[in-house]
Amino acid sequence: MAKMIKLVSGDGAEFEVEEEVAFQSKIIKDIVADADDVIPLPTVSSKVLIQVIEYCRKHAAVNSFPLSPSSSAAAAASSSSSISYSKPVSDPALRAWDNEFVKLNNSSLFDIVIAANYLDIEELVDLVLETVADRIKGKQAQEIRRQFNIENDFTPEEEEALRRENSWAFQNN
Amino acid sequence: MAEGSDARAWEELIPDALGLIFRNLPLQEILTVIPRVCKSWSRVVLGPYCWQEIDIDEWSQHCKPEQLDKMLHMLIDRSCGSFRRLSVSGLHTESMFTLIADHAGSLQRLELPRSEMNDAIVKLVAPRLCNLTYLDVSYCSKIGACAIEAFGKHCRSLVVLRRTMHPLEVDRNYQCQEEEAYAIAKTMTKLRHLEMSYQPLTTQAVLEILSKCKDLEYLDLRGCWDVKLDEKYLKERHSGLKVLGPDIVDHYEQIFWNDWADSYSDSSGYEEAFDDDVIWEDENGIELDGFQVRFYGGGFSGVVTGFDWPPSP
């Protein structure tokens, strides 16, 4: 029987998960090391925690069987030099699963990235940030504001000045 | 957490998270669109979080020299010297090179293809590049073994070296290229990934590299026509090593492998053309975890098709 860890969301819901699933979160891994099996997460709602656990469950299963010795060697090389390249998920099936997982609205993504950052689940943070970048790519400022509900706090003059500021670099196009 | 409203304070997302989002965007967008969205996003683009990795390789291939100078200064300033990666093409003044070295305290990955620096400058600044783990000096025609050795001596953690040369520009002075290979063998013993396409190397020089660089996992020798490596020998003595070339498979097109999934979808046009199963059917592929791999190829008639080489003079 796998060791179980109990996670308690901000709104009081309890979730029992296998240790290896919970340990996708570096924070939880550290806390449990101090012999504490019930982990309150007051800033994470149950809705978000369910989604995060789903991600961790999927990735725990894959992480226990690394793809190849040389990929872990290269990973070791890059981690020892503390570069965090956005490491591509090398398993196409897992990547496809990830792409489905992030088909959420921006608000949900926001909540997930905050939680993942808090729990120190690096791959999930990277995944969400990459997804958000894809949604921003190619859009004009006004469209971005609309999509992410951001208020335009520039005056028209300020905005015009900004529009000119770096145009020198792209005049050849 | 407030569940009711749909709006989330994206503008207030912590700066380093925003920096991570923006850095994946094209340069033009980061500099001309993002700052106009709102004040806090504008602040992030001005600050270091966006510029931990400075990749202006593509932009720098089309810009004017004074623009390159201005851009480099601006971005290095914004990074507050914390940039860990710099990718720029066509560096042509000593001062640009020293500017980089002056701020290279955190620099680990340096890509300077098509640069015009010479051996003397490299010898001068290499000591300040001591944290490099990844170096790309492809198509730098003014440096030779001296510069390679200077890099090797000072960058003790180097694991990736890209030193592909332009086949039409290479000085067919075997001596000179041999010396580079021996410099690598002597000073870069921790290399795991080495690209030396189109260098006129001898088999002996390559064997010297193999014997000294025991961690080598990937060796690109495409276009190194004089190199003859025995497959059996490789399997027995260097089983962890993947060697590409010297032969180039016909009907290649140039693709950029940024990650594994994309490579499977991008290869759709190529399956029927490939005879070389070693490259495409190996289920491990080329394990580079985040390293960029560029493939060059095409018939070797001297006609270059769609390659990223410098325009002919």
From TrEMBL, chain B:
PANTHER family attached to this UniProt entry: F-BOX DOMAIN CONTAINING PROTEIN, EXPRESSED (PTHR38926), F-BOX_LRR-REPEAT PROTEIN 21-RELATED (PTHR38926:SF2)
Protein's UniProt name: F-box domain-containing protein
Pfam family, one: F-box
InterPro entries on file: F-box_dom
Domain F-box residue range list: 10-52
Lineage: Eukaryota, Viridiplantae, Streptophyta, Embryophyta, Tracheophyta
